[in-house]
Amino acid sequence: FHSILLQNSDIQAKEFAEMLVSADWFSFSFGCLGNFCTANMKQRIYLMLSSLVDVLLEQKTGSHIRDALHCLPSDPQDLLFLLG
Questions:
Q1: Which run of H or of E encompasses 39?
Q2: Which residues form a coiled coil (predicted)?
Q3: How far is residue 32 CA from its own chain's centroid?
Q4: Which end of the chain has the lower number of beta carbons within 10 A, N or C?
Q5: d(CA 19, CA 67)
Q6: Distance set, CA 16 to CA 7, 24, 71, 79, 80 (Å)
């Protein structure tokens, strides 16, 4: 999924990002994060999330997620608490 989002074709990447969001990608990915709380899984989920934000908002706002990656929790419930 991540490599498709990083392609140069902005139109295809945006369509794919919209499809992921509408297909409950967040529920699936954070479910994986909750079941497999490893540093590698955490990094993959948050990098994918930051790429989705970049594509959908057409800005570099996903960089904030990438910058805070080491501070973000591995447990999705902890993340929901922080977002509050």
A1: helix 39-57
A2: none
A3: 12
A4: C
A5: 26
A6: 11, 13, 28, 25, 25
